[in-house]
Write the structure tokens for this entry.
Amino acid sequence: MEPGTGRGNTTGTPPPPPHVTTPRLPPPPAIRAQDLSGSHDGVKVIRGIDLLIRPGEIFGLLGAPGTGKSTAIALLCTLIRPTAGSLWVAGHDVHTAPSSVRGSVGVVLQHPTLDLGLTVQENLHLHAALHGMPRRQAHRRITATLTLTGLLRRRHCPVRALAQATRRKLEITRALLHRPQVLLLDEPTHGLDPHDHQQVWQHVHHMHRTTGVTVLSTIRRPDEAHHCDRLAILQDGRTVTFHDPPPPPAHPGQDPSPPPAPTTPRLPTPVPRHRTGGEPTPKAHT
Amino acid sequence: MNTITPTLPKAQVRAVTMVWRREVTAFARTRTCLLLGAVQPLLLLAALNMDAPRYGPATDSAVFLFSGALVVAVLAPASAAGVSYLRDHASGLLQQMLLTPVPRQCLLLGKVLAGTTTATCHGALLLLLTTTAGLPYEPALLASLVVILALSSFTMTSLAVLVAVCLPHPRTFHTATALLAGPMVALSGAFSPSGELPSWLASLSALNPLTHAVDATRTTITAHLPLAPDSLSATIRTAGAGPSCAEELTVLVCCGALCLFLALRRFTRADRHRTVKNTTPPPPLFQPPDL
């Protein structure tokens, strides 16, 4: 054994001081919004929301219909322009670099947007071309992605022949084809029956585990909240409840301070999330 | 992450090609639309030939009507490009395509090119009947007519897409195209000689791109006929005293280019206004810890 390691040291000499290492800076947030406001059809729907979403987490935006969830998604994916505030998505400012934001996010809108007249593979090729992927790279990636999602055998099927849940899974697959940093889901289970809800969320978790993408999903039903790592409630265009992440330590080695308790009525106790092939993972809000 | 920047010319060409391919594939897979598109100009010819003798001998009238029907045949498929835009707009597919980093011009260019292709194919079907109009199967004549069809299709498709971009509501679009199509066909001289129009209408017909397309078609056909009938030449608006076929086609293309430019400008207007310079300093992404 090497002397001074502290293991089996019998000489009685004090151990050397611990090596001071450069503190690891936390990664930049995947989404950062400050006092973000936006309008839809001339009506001010979002009236100042603040978001700070860490890379790799699944973040939920819960709200009743008409509270601005879809408008928030539209702001994040640069479909509409913010009327006030700042918004950074995947490190890009939506005001000055909207094209870069669009290249870094994958979006699944509330209503289906597949071309029913084309096949599964043709839909994916169109998406790949619009994201600037070369033909060979697109072909390889489409084959790999379809294999991952179990749709390889149906690549030549017209989309109109697929079930609703399968079309939804295909849209999620399409949104991840260009390997975005952030995946935006606008009510991914909208219009599906309860059995298909579980299928779609399992697919989301599967793709999240495989690719490590940051997911922001709007949800309408509280019983879907347990699918998210953190949650914010949207009400009257503002985030009412927001669980801030713990701040980075002020000094190296110091334990991070515990997250603050929410100041609004507590959410109902979530049902433990069941991951595919794993044991149930209890979810803690505080 | 992608290894190719979508703003590179190669990537943009690929995007335009994929949008074109998508539209043409959808057109080729709708057999009913193909069949009806082939039948429509034939019915038009059959209906108009019943009243042919007032334009002169049968051969003259057949050539006269055939040249007009050839140009008019591209109108319906060209307006289908505008309908395709509206359908994508309503279904959300256009919105999904706008969420990609490729420049917006590429999406519209692909649609216009696809509409030009399908309209040209529709019109080219009518060329199979050139012998019924007394025209010879000359490769040079057929190639010239295909070029005129392509340019006419481009202009009409650009106009239809411009109307669709400006008036995205389906009912308004159909009303607007009906309002435009009728006078354009009536003033073009496709089925009635332009010389019979009042002087003020004859002046208006000069602003009609279809008029130039019909004139160019008749001039081309006249040049390839061994004995061009005088009555046919008389129906050409500016025969012997006006612009040549090349000049007519130039005017036609310029009309189409203007419509395309206005459509692109309108379509990308939102994107241009969005990229404003942010004068406030960006917030720090994270605070480094105090060491």
